Amino acid sequence: MLNNFLDNRCIELKSNYDSYEDLITNVSRELLKYGYVKESFLENILGREKQYPTGFELGGKYNIAIPHTDMENVLKPVIYIVVLDRPVMFKSAEDGKSDISVDIVFVISLNEKDKHIVVLEELMKIFSKNDLIEKIKNSEDKDELIRLIYEEE
């Protein structure tokens, strides 16, 4: 299921950003360039992240964030994955206040309501496996990362 939303161009490995705003801004530009989102995407995803933070502590070595926005900002569905070389701070989805040091970001861009729940369920399965998260974090190439996710389905 998740493989239907992966595009090799929408995966970054060993990336560095100074803030989650920088990361989301760059991802939004790339998604716009590839025709996945509308120009309204950036403003909306940043606003949503401030209002409803998406940082999650997984209880293992690495933490994740799953920024997303309303489907009317999306033209074609995709999950943009950023594996960070050094962590970026996101606010906790749990309390909205605590800082979480995030290592992997899954920017979810979907344009069908029924797909959101299914995609989140599939991602939660991945997030529950610390060994898989570690393999994703240590991926050396994009095809390897896609294969790891494909093998989980």
The overall average pLDDT, rounded, is 95
Strand portion, in percent? 15-25%
Taking strands numbered 1, 2, ... along the chain, how are they ordered across the largest sheet? 1-4-5-3-2
Distance between the first and last residues' Cα: 7 Å
Computed structural class: alpha/beta
Number of strands: 5
Using brief descriptors, characterize the structure shown.
5 strands, 153 residues, 24% strand, globular, alpha/beta, single chain, five-stranded mixed beta sheet, Mannitol-specific EII, Chain A, 5 helices
Provide a concise account of the structure shown:
The chain is of the alpha/beta class. The chain is built from five helices and five strands.
How would you describe this protein?
It comes from Sebaldella termitidis (strain ATCC 33386 / NCTC 11300). This is PTS IIA-like nitrogen-regulatory protein PtsN. InterPro entries: PTrfase/Anion_transptr, PTS_EIIA_type-2_dom, PTS_SugarTrans_NitroReg. The chain is α/β, with parallel strands linked by helices and 153 residues long. It has one domain: Mannitol-specific EII, Chain A, CATH 3.40.930. Helices cover 39% and strands 24% of the residues. The protein has 5 helices and 5 strands, in the order E-H-H-E-E-E-E-H-H-H. The chain has helices at 20-33, 40-51, 113-127, 130-137, 142-152, and strands at residues 11-15, 55-57, 63-65, 78-91, 99-109. Strands 1-4-5-3-2 form a 5-stranded mixed beta sheet. A hairpin with a 5-residue loop joins strand 2 and strand 3. The chain is globular and about 35 Å long.
